[in-house]
């Protein structure tokens, strides 16, 4: 690699690090508001208790137990606030108004309906439509499935009346069934908003989140590697790999300095691609815009991600040899869009 191209590569890693670490800090510094909304006795408070893992929110089958918008922190992270709200049909008129006034502030709304009652009643549908007009970041939670039958048809009924663009998650706040699925759906919606890192840090199962991030980055890297890009090829791919590296370090609480990140990216890229031309480090194979280029770019990104994940989960230094072996394994695939099983 000649010195000019080497400097360009190093500068691109520096710039990507500064930009990506800024994005992560912005996410971690913002409050994350998740509002639980629905009619009285829909199981909002009991769901908060299941998500958090202990009884922090008061529960009562009688209307009016929740009379204010009460925040509960998840996993001791003050920035994550699960907001318990008064029932939308609370007989005390002021209580639902508090909920409605709060809707626009929430990052995500969990809209509850009762599988053991009149599922997605006319009054619920009307309230749902009002809420969706002000905030489209909604997950519909079909609660109390432990006391109902034919859940699949109930889910389809809700989708037909609420709109197919909204995900419906059947759960039981009594038994805890599908609470992990609900957390996963929350994370997916936050990813679309670019606010997923803080919530991901709160989850016990970090491995599943890491896999999703790594596989998604692998596919994106393949698209970059397979498509001719005007100008410098290094920028989007380097930003992707540096961003993945920093997100994994944040997820596993393994602080990474700029020097460590730069050394990791440059050394492993050089070893994987070989001591060849700069374009091979960025595009990995001669001839940008080829399926082969996409496969190699994807393979290196996957190897980098899974190598880091393995090191963090086993509390050991990141091993460049493991990354290289993973790279050789993934490169045997015929399609860079094929996700590895890890």
TrEMBL record:
<keyword id="KW-0812">Transmembrane</keyword>
<keyword id="KW-1133">Transmembrane helix</keyword>
<dbReference type="InterPro" id="IPR027417">
    <property type="entry name" value="P-loop_NTPase"/>
</dbReference>
<dbReference type="InterPro" id="IPR005225">
    <property type="entry name" value="Small_GTP-bd"/>
</dbReference>
<feature type="domain" description="G">
    <location>
        <begin position="34"/>
        <end position="144"/>
    </location>
</feature>
<dbReference type="Pfam" id="PF01926">
    <property type="entry name" value="MMR_HSR1"/>
</dbReference>
<keyword id="KW-0547">Nucleotide-binding</keyword>
<keyword id="KW-0472">Membrane</keyword>
<dbReference type="InterPro" id="IPR021147">
    <property type="entry name" value="DUF697"/>
</dbReference>
<dbReference type="InterPro" id="IPR006073">
    <property type="entry name" value="GTP-bd"/>
</dbReference>
<dbReference type="Pfam" id="PF05128">
    <property type="entry name" value="DUF697"/>
</dbReference>
<keyword id="KW-0342">GTP-binding</keyword>
<protein>
    <submittedName>
        <fullName>GTPase</fullName>
    </submittedName>
</protein>
């Amino acid at each position: 690699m000649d010195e000019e191209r080497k400097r360009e590569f190093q500068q691109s890693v520096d710039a990507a690090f500064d930009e990506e670490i800024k994005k992560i800090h912005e996410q971690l510094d913002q409050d994350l508001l998740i509002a639980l909304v629905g009619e009285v006795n829909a199981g909002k408070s009991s769901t908060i208790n299941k998500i958090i893992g202990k009884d922090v929110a008061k529960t009562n089958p009688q209307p009016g137990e929740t009379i204010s918008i009460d925040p509960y922190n998840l996993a001791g992270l003050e920035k994550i606030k699960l907001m318990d709200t008064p029932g939308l049909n609370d007989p005390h008129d002021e209580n639902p108004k508090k909920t409605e006034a709060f809707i626009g502030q929430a990052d995500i709304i969990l809209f509850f309906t009762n599988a053991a009652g009149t599922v997605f009643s006319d009054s619920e549908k009307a309230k749902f439509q009002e809420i969706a007009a002000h905030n489209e970041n909604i997950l519909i939670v079909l609660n109390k499935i432990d006391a109902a039958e034919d859940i699949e048809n109930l889910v389809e009924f809700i989708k037909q009346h609420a709109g197919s663009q909204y995900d419906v998650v059947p759960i039981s706040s009594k038994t805890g069934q599908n609470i992990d699925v609900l957390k996963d759906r929350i994370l997916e919606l936050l990813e679309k908003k670019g606010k997923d890192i803080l919530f991901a840090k709160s989850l016990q199962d970090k491995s599943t989140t890491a896999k999703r991030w790594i596989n998604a980055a692998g596919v994106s890297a393949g698209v970059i590697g397979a498509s001719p890009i005007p100008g410098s090829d290094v920028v989007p791919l380097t930003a992707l790999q540096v961003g993945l590296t920093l997100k994994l370090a944040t997820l596993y609480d393994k602080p990474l300095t700029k020097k460590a990140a730069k050394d990791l990216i440059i050394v492993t890229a050089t070893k994987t691609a070989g001591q060849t031309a700069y374009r091979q480090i960025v595009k990995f194979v001669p001839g940008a815009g080829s399926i082969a280029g996409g496969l190699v770019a994807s393979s290196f990104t996957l190897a980098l991600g899974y190598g880091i994940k393995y090191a963090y989960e086993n509390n050991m230094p990141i091993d460049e040899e493991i990354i290289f072996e993973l790279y050789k394994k993934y490169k045997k695939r015929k399609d860079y869009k094929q996700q590895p099983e890890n």
